[in-house]
Design brief:
- The chain is of the alpha+beta class.
- The protein has 3 domains: about 80 residues, no CATH class; about 160 residues, no CATH class; about 180 residues, Gyrase A, domain 2, CATH 3.30.1360.
- Helices cover about 45% and strands about 10% of the residues.
- It contains 21 helices and 9 strands.
- Strands 6-7-9-8 form a 4-stranded antiparallel sheet. The chain has a 3-stranded antiparallel sheet with strand order 1-5-2. A two-stranded antiparallel ribbon has the order 3-4.
- Helix 12 crosses helix 14.
- The chain is globular.
- The chain starts with 11 loop residues before the first helix and ends in a 7-residue tail after the last helix.
- The mean pLDDT is about 90.
Length: about 550
């Protein structure tokens, strides 16, 4: 085989062949186009060993004489480097967008918990109404294992009742917010005389301004209603999810789903593999069920069930800032290992572990580490324990969905359940629907208990509502706390997750008041009326007017 030319100079013929694939054949900074992700990944992988640049590598090693991509060669190189040599960093060089539709909200959290290498965007229950059926059915998943059990009919009846109740709340709740903020008092930003002014309907001067006002007001009222009535959406509610991820991320995601106990996870893993096989098949070749992780989960679930049998769950505040010093580091590590498998707070778990004999402590450690047969058998996230700032948080599943997305930290959550209680928004009582909303919680809690008794604890999570409380633990450094709190207390945020971030800030500043400059832009205000997006939509209206593009598709 002829060795490729190693000179850094491109011939005119080579430039001609390259033009369909790079934005500028003469530039040192350029974008790539029209190439299979596997060819791109293979060519980028050559950066570490080839004396020439990307363009020279592509045209001399990965294009056929007629200028078409040699995709076979790209695949062969990636297969050798990633799958035979085990260079996992190369698996990050191929990126593919992926759309996942009609999966449960429970599943979106499992997916999004794979934090590194993937960027997700999710259909929002804060802005999208779930008041219409699709193809004659309400938008919730129907797990095969439940439907094939004696509880199948009860599951369908309960879910249908939830969505029928939700649909009936839409107009009364929007009417309440229209009463709180009448359309004639709603203002948008408009440009006047070289400046920006707030204008009510009476001050609008053209049809475009009136249209922008109408859209902004409608979205503001709808999102305020969605914020409240999503309290009775179940974890089984369907959502659409978009991800841009690299090969290493997708390998981890597929492996995680194949290892999970939920049937929905295994079915989704197969669908993801099938879709990505059209783009980056070689990069996900090593994805597979991780028996090591599955065995650890089963062993820890059994052991923790025995250790905490009969141990009543301590009641705690919404947010607890855990101690920084003075405790046994090993006890804290073992407590972190136990946390996802129980419903107890971290402080109580530490107390239980402290009282255990050394033999039991070694048993917990051994169960969590499992039997590692290679370096690829990696223990779980508990080993990330040791951040300087650590919180236990209790909030609704709805708030968890928003706060879970942060990645520069470590989070572990407990299973969705009904033991920690729930909350009903005050607006529900204002429109006279508190009784039927509480019936929604009672019905799902009854179904949840039935599913547990039937040996389906994982599937029981589908039968919890967005306002059922969940406990999770968050470890972070000070820089991340500043980012987290300043972002999540903005006025446009949901009132409940704003409250959680505010409490986190107050607890930390009580311990370290000298750190106030780091958290200077945390918004500690409470905004009445529950209409949190009015100001943001007022600004959006001005941007729409400037661009001449109006987002009224919905």
């Amino acid at each position: 085989m002829t060795r490729p030319n190693r000179t850094g100079e491109l011939s005119e013929r080579e430039k001609e062949l390259l033009r369909p694939y790079v934005s500028d054949v003469d530039a040192t900074v350029f974008t790539i186009r029209n190439l299979n992700p596997e060819v791109i990944g293979a060519a980028l992988a050559r950066y570490s060993r080839a004396p020439t640049g990307f363009k020279e590598t592509v045209v001399r090693e990965f294009l056929n004489p007629d200028g078409t991509p040699n995709e076979v060669k790209g695949t062969e190189l990636i297969d050798r480097v990633v799958n035979k040599f085990g260079d996992e960093s190369v698996a990050e060089l191929a990126v593919s967008p992926l759309c996942i539709e009609e999966v449960s909200n429970l599943m979106t959290k499992i997916i999004e918990d794979c934090r590194i290498g993937g960027s997700p965007i999710e259909e929002s229950t804060r802005y999208v109404l779930y008041d219409e059926k699709r193809n004659g059915q309400w938008r919730y998943v129907r797990p095969r294992r439940i439907l094939q059990s004696q509880l199948g009919e009860k599951f369908i009846a309960t879910m249908d009742f939830l969505f029928e109740t939700y649909a009936a709340l839409v107009e009364p709740m929007q009417a309440l917010f229209r009463q709180r903020l009448p359309e004639e008092r709603f203002t948008i930003e408009v440009e006047r005389g070289g400046g920006v002014e707030m204008a009510a309907p009476a001050q609008l001067t053209c049809e475009d301004e009136r249209r922008a006002h109408r859209i902004a007001y409608g979205f503001t009222i709808r999102s305020a209603a969605c914020d409240v009535i999503r309290c009775i959406l179940p974890a089984a509610t369907q959502a659409n999810l978009g991800i841009v991820g690299n090969g290493r991320f997708y390998t981890g995601l597929i492996s995680k789903l194949l290892t999970h106990d939920l049937g929905e996870a295994g079915e989704l893993a197969a669908n993801i593999q099938r879709a990505l096989a059209t783009q980056i098949p070689t990069f996900i070749k090593r994805a597979g069920r991780r028996t090591y992780r599955a065995d650890i989960a089963n062993g820890m679930r059994t052991l923790c069930g025995e250790l905490f049998q009969g141990v009543a769950i301590d009641k705690t505040a919404e947010v607890t800032l855990l101690p920084e010093k003075g405790e046994d580091a090993r006890v804290n590590l073992l407590a972190s290992m136990i946390f996802p498998y129980v419903q107890h707070p971290t402080a109580q778990i530490r107390q239980v572990v402290s009282a255990l004999p050394e033999e039991k402590r070694r048993q917990i450690f051994a169960a969590y580490l499992g039997e590692r047969k290679s370096k690829r058998d990696r223990p779980g996230r508990a080993l990330e324990h040791g951040y300087p700032i650590e919180f236990d948080i209790i909030a609704g599943f709805a708030e968890y969905r928003d706060l879970q997305r942060h990645r520069m930290l470590t989070q572990q959550r407990q299973d969705l359940g009904v033991l920690l209680g729930y909350s009903v928004p005050e607006e529900i009582a204002e429109i006279g629907r508190e009784d039927i909303v509480r019936e929604c919680f009672e019905r799902t809690e009854d179904l949840h208990r039935d599913l547990h008794r039937a040996g389906m604890p994982e599937e029981a999570q589908y039968a919890t509502l967005f306002n059922h409380f969940i406990r999770w633990n968050v470890g972070m450094n000070l820089r991340e706390l500043g980012h987290f709190a300043e972002l999540r207390t903005q006025k446009a945020g949901h009132p409940k997750y704003r409250r959680t971030a505010q409490l986190m800030t107050r607890l930390y500043l009580k311990r370290h008041p000298e750190m106030e400059p780091v958290l200077h832009f945390v918004d500690h205000n409470d905004y009445d009326g529950g209409i949190t997006r009015a100001e943001q939509e007022a600004r959006t209206a001005r941007k729409s007017l400037a661009a001449g593009v109006f987002d009224d598709m919905d």
